[in-house]
Automatic annotation (TrEMBL):
Protein name: Phosphonate C-P lyase system protein PhnL
Protein's UniProt keywords contain Amino-acid biosynthesis: no
Key words, A-Z: ATP-binding, Lyase, Nucleotide-binding
InterPro entries noted in UniProt: AAA+_ATPase, ABC_transporter-like_ATP-bd, ABC_transporter-like_CS, CP_lyase_PhnL, P-loop_NTPase
Family: Belongs to the ABC transporter superfamily.
Gene: phnL
Molecular function terms from GO: lyase activity
NCBIfam families xref list: CP_lyasePhnL
Pfam family, one: ABC_tran
ABC transporter domain: residues covered: 5-233
Length: 233
């Protein structure tokens, strides 16, 4: 079986053009494969590059060297060299991303924010809305808030809308950046259940989970993100 995600010899270094071209090496020659149904937790001290790796898997960052490949339908797409339209397609159908903070779009109601990914992927409107309602209900967002834009929602409510949006479509690959950081125990448990269900249907998941209970409940293994070492260059 082909891995859903394949990272090989991936290195990332940032260049700060606005600060005299300062160079920040983050990680160096990472290799990682994630299979369908597997959940890998990115691990390591603060600043080693966990978020940078997760964003690289979503093609937010281009590799400095090395490759990130994802299985998109029957094709293998190399994200570093893919055309922008291919990245859009991969994000539309294959890779879902739950960031820590919801990027709130003014005036768009929570229900629409959650239903949008399914709609964009071609799911019929009624079905997309139903799925969004079910998720908002499971994540304990009061129904009176569904028609309001999440701009004024609490941090935890915004995070739950974000989680609902990430699970609104059965993405084959899911990237989760601390999806439970602002949640109470009951809602953390709902997210754990959603992750387990996604694994059971064969999703390949890569996440950052600082909460030990969540990590132990969902992660099949830890992947140590090691910071760049000059002597390894
Ligand atoms: N867009 C960027 N431009 C420049 N430097 C960046 C950028 N994003 C991250 N970095 C740098 O890369 C390094 C790794 O950051 P990253 O956020 O990936 O670490 P992390 O392991 O996720 O940390 P934490 O656990 O604290 O969230 C840091 O030194 C950070 O300053």
């Amino acid at each position: 079986m082909a891995p859903m995600i394949s990272v090989s010899a991936l290195s990332k270094e940032f260049t700060l053009h606005t600060q005299g071209g300062a160079r920040i090496p983050v990680f160096d020659r990472l290799d990682l494969e994630v299979m369908a149904g597997e959940c890998v937790c990115l691990h390591g001290p603060s600043g080693t590059g966990k978020s940078t790796l997760l964003r690289s898997l979503y093609a937010n960052y281009k590799p400095s060297s090395g490759h990130v490949r994802v299985l998109h339908g029957k094709d293998i797409v190399e994200l570093g060299s893919a055309e922008p339209w291919q990245i859009i397609e991969v994000r539309r159908r294959t890779v879902g991303y739950v960031s820590q903070f919801l990027r709130v779009i003014p005036r768009v109601p929570a229900l629409e924010v959650v239903a949008e990914p399914a709609r964009l992927a071609g799911v019929p409107e009624a079905e997309a809305q139903n799925r969004a309602r079910t998720l908002l209900k499971r994540l304990n967002i009061p129904e009176r808030l569904w028609s309001l834009a999440p701009t004024t929602f609490s941090g935890g409510e915004q995070q739950r809308v974000n989680v609902a949006r990430g699970f609104a479509l059965d993405y084959p690959i899911l990237l989760l950046d601390e999806p439970t950081a602002s949640l109470d125990a009951a809602n953390r448990q709902v997210v754990v259940e959603l992750i387990k269900e996604a694994k059971a249907r064969g999703a390949a998941i890569v996440g950052i989970f600082h909460d030990m209970e969540v990590r132990e409940a969902v992660a099949d293994r830890l992947f140590e993100v090691t910071a760049y070492r000059r002597d390894a260059a």
